[in-house]
Amino acid sequence: MVAKLPIVVHPGYEQLAAGLASALGAPLVQHVEQITTEHYLEYGDSGLSLVSSLSDAGGGKPVTVCCDFVNGTLRHRRLYGGGIRQALGRAVGISSGFKPLVADLTAGLGRDGYVLASLGARVILVERNEVVAALLADGLARLRQHAAQDNSLREISDRLTLHRVDGKNWLRTLDKESYADVIYLDPMFPERSKSARVKKDMAIFHGLVGDDADAGDLLELACKAARYRVVVKRPRRAPPLAGIKPRFSIAGKTTRFDIHVLKKIPR
Ligand SMILES: C[S@@+](CC[C@H](N)C(=O)[O-])C[C@H]1O[C@@H](n2cnc3c(N)ncnc32)[C@H](O)[C@@H]1O
User: Same domain, yes or no, for 93 and 218?
Assistant: First the structure.
């Protein structure tokens, strides 16, 4: 994927798009017809999206990737996802008496981080890819707008902060007092889903961020800089990250959480 994706701007979003274009060093474009690249960014009524123009071929809807914490899947997960007993909550060690500070060092589009915040954890989202971080910042901004009218959303959004930096560098800035209780890692892994449409979303996302080939280094550093545990999300049948065996795992239908225990979580 080209380094500087053009940004298509729709009326009413000129200022936001200009700010992003200058931050990313990306060109601004007024009409989709002017796009000659395979992928582009688009600012419009549904916020900022990453769009694949090639997927228009054959008359299908373009495949878009965006960050939406308020509607759709994440709304459903917040309301009906099973609360702290769901696998992600148990992996991170959330209980009625323990709401950890979690550093999500591979924040991506923030879905796991948002679920953790909805279960009561305070979550530091760390994302190094500037386009992904822009999508995430946009999703958080729209969450905050909705949160102004909705107390439960406000509590969740107050627990989320974003750092646009490499997780390894972020860890190196910490002193012992500021260690997170739990570090959460979900590095890219190919072929994460069987659904064709999800695959297309993932393919665009994968093309943008690449392979996260340094994930093993991140795990090693994380194991020295968390208070209680490091949790790694993997496809259910994948080997443990970097061959480092976890103390235990919690498996769901398609994914597995590998838990590297550093110290017993207080109850
Ligand atoms: C599979 S995605 C994470 C998806 C995320 N868990 C979610 O629920 O949306 C992996 C993300 O981690 C980011 N990433 C990988 N290594 C990183 C690092 N060392 N520092 C910061 N971000 C990193 C990638 O840029 C990518 O956006």
Answer: yes
Do 185 and 85 lie in one domain? The reply is yes
Q: What is the pLDDT of residues 195-233, one digit of tens each?
A: 555 577 788 888 888 889 999 999 999 999 999 999 999
Structure tokens at 120: 């009561």
In ligand 1, the atom with minimum distance to the C-alpha of 218 is 19
Domain that holds residue 49: 7-66
How many angstroms is it from 128 CA to the middle of ligand 1?
Answer: 7
- Looking at residue 191, its pLDDT comes to 57
Q: Considering the domain boundaries, does residue 153 fall inside one?
A: yes
What is the predicted pLDDT for the residue at 55? Answer: 54
Establish if 204 belongs to a structural domain.
Answer: no
With beta carbons less than 8 A apart as the criterion, state whether 134 and 24 touch.
yes
Q: Identify the residue whose C-alpha is closest to ligand 1 atom 4.
A: 108
User: CA 84 to CA 94: how far, in whole Å?
Assistant: 6
Lowest mean pLDDT among 2-11, 160-169, 197-206, 207-216: 197-206
> How far, in Å, is the centroid of ligand 1 from the Cα of 156?
21
| Structure-block tokens of residue 148 | 């102004």
Mutate to test the pocket of ligand 1, among 128, 131, 219 (most ligand atoms within 8 A of CB): 128
- Per-residue pLDDT tens over the stretch 61-109: 788 899 999 988 888 888 877 788 899 999 999 999 999 999 999 999 9
The CA distance from 163 to 27, in Å, is 24
Last residue of a domain, one of 22, 42, 66: 66
Ligand 1 centroid to residue 188 C-alpha, Å:
7
3-state DSSP assignment of residue 249: strand
Q: Are 225 and 183 in contact (CB under 8 A)?
A: yes
DSSP, collapsed to helix, strand or coil, labels residue 92 as: helix
